[in-house]
Amino acid sequence: MMKSLAITVWGMMAFPGCKPGEIMDENVLVKSLPLTEKQRLNLEKMVDTFLPETDTLGAVQLNIHRFLDKLIANCYPEEEQKLFVNGLDLLEGIAQDTFLKSFDSLGISDRENILLGLDNEDADEGKSFFDFSKEQVILAFTSSEYFLTNYTNYEMIPGGYDGCVDVPEVPFKV
Amino acid sequence: MPNFNLDAKKGNTYDAIVIGSGISGGWAAKELCERGLKTLVLERGRDVKHIVDYPTANKHPWEFEFGGKLPLEKQAEFGRRGARIHESTAHFWMKEGEQEIVQEKPFQWTRGYQVGGKSLLWARQTQRWSDLDFEGPARDGYAVDWPIRYQDLAPWYSHVEKFSGIAGNYDGLPQLPDGEFLKPFDLSCVERHFQKVIAANYKDRHLIHGRCAHVTEPQEIHLQQGRAKCQHRNLCNRGCPFGGYFSANASTLPWAERTGNMTLRTHAVVHSIIFDEEKGSAVGVRIIDANDMQSYEYYAKIIFCNASALNSNLILLNSTSSRFPNGLGNDNGLLGKFISWHNYRGQISARSEQFSDKMSKGKNPSHSYIPRFRNLNRQETDFLRGYAVGFGSSARAVQFSRAGIGEELKRNLFDRRLGHWWVSGWMQGEVIPIESNHVRLHEELKDKYGIPQLVLSCDWTENDDKMVKDYMEQMTEMFEKAGFTEINARDSGSAPGSDIHEMGGVRMGNDPKTSLLNKWNQLHHCKNVFVTDGACMTSTATQNPSLTYMAITARAANFAVDEINRGNL
Lengths: 174, 569
Description:
Order of helices and strands of chain A: HHHHHHE
Number of strands of chain A: 1
Helix content of chain A: 40-55%
Strand content of chain A: under 5%
Distance between the termini of chain A: 22 Å
CATH topology of the largest domain in chain B: FAD/NAD(P)-binding domain
Structural class of chain B: alpha/beta
Largest interface: A-B, 55 and 48 residues
Oligomer: heterodimer
């Protein structure tokens, strides 16, 4: 069944290794964040924690960790990039302090608890990191081809407009 | 020895020059070329060819490399606005530093410096004026009397409507004359309900279908332009590959080009219009090439100034000579004065609890409209004139929760439901032109082309404040009668210009002592220069202005050709 679903992953076009012919604007040199291997893994695990794979694809399957890396590296000022990387270190620090383990090696419920601990006005920088990351993951997920074409009524060319029709009685996509 | 100057001049000579390739310049080009004039169209920005230069037109949300956000180096090109500009339309925004100005008072000046100008970005609403508008200044004692009336413009409204394609309903309202309509877009359940409530409660108030420049039923003339039916994509401002809405790029400019009479010169920043003291007329236009920064001159019998309202003011103010030391045609010192615009400060939104068993399908690129009802036939409030209202409630909101993380968040994102119908209204008020609202050239500061910077000095008056208050009261009352809830009426306090309907400064009038242009849009004192963009407007009425610029331009262009043929120009 999965194979019949449309899947395009975020960030494909940014990675010349994937599809060299599809870099859209050659004037834009696509940068990545200067992440250590650990930070990179933690980013992936954080994205996975926000939207894990269930009976539907998760954020990692849609490559949203790589998209966020690219988005923040290219579209946000350096200070905000640093705050984001600091946030990833914060996750690692809490994981080490609490579980004596790396964030990326924790099970999902421990990772959830660490993230939810940041969703708290007292967490200062942690809170803004949490809010920013969550919002970006949601935005990327809900704008993905997978989500829009399979789970919403997305239509680029509706072709018309009826201003007043009955709400169908059978389930339908909105 | 060959005379190089003479040769160069010959190569740079045309029958007509049109300054600007936007909504009015495109019409000047079309009419002049169709009537056989070799016409040079000057555009300060780059070329934007229909379809081929709409790079984002067919992109899905997931196809934007950064989800729509611009990379930092591109953001920087747009200054402080950069972080908020979406990749889908970034290519149609003016870049920071392209034309520096001095805001003596805050003014949000939106410029579309590319072929097609703002016709790529406009809201596409097109209503005719009536004599209640043309006679406004005379009746209420402001500005000067318009030198034209509805009957002068009516055939030209028809002329431009048939070609552009205007969707609308025949409403039979004297304050908003019907035009040449294609079928209108549908009204939603909520709009129909509000229409009935208004009709039942107010004699002079009407909610009608928005009249807009969309091809809803392509006619032969639209097919000839290569335009097709509007596909309801609501991605208009990326450029429409179907030509579903009217833009100069999709319509007038290719039409003009097809005659073989049009030459388009891009990257041509107009410095001034050249006045010949001996001939006593304008002979050409001086430009700065935006690429090589060199000055070039082009010559023609007639010049149409369609640079956009404020830029046309700037060009005329900068066109000085011994005869016109204060700017071309400016004997009375009124050039650049009586600038006005539309008051969009009044906003209102609310919720409709009704019609929870109804929804809409597809997308509506337009909205509905309430023509002006205040002070229509007589003065009845403590402010002059009135406002029209744009009203929208096209679709129910989609609701989903963003709560939680992990599986909970995922469940929430997938649990999308139809939310409430929301409604919103926005005010389109007439701003009374006053002399102190003006633009002028800065005495020292120049832009990067060496052209004096424009000083913008425009402000609201008490009349505008009173009108906003009345809008909020009246709309709240109408919303209450309709049973809407959570009504939120507010004054946005936005700066003048945010309506993108700036007008005036080179106003039309009968008397050369109090106006700059005659009834044919000729400068009173330099008859071969025509100004037919927003600068020519004596007053603003409440209608979205573009359709009137188009009609005025087509009328003036045909008059100009007639005058040439009669030997008068």
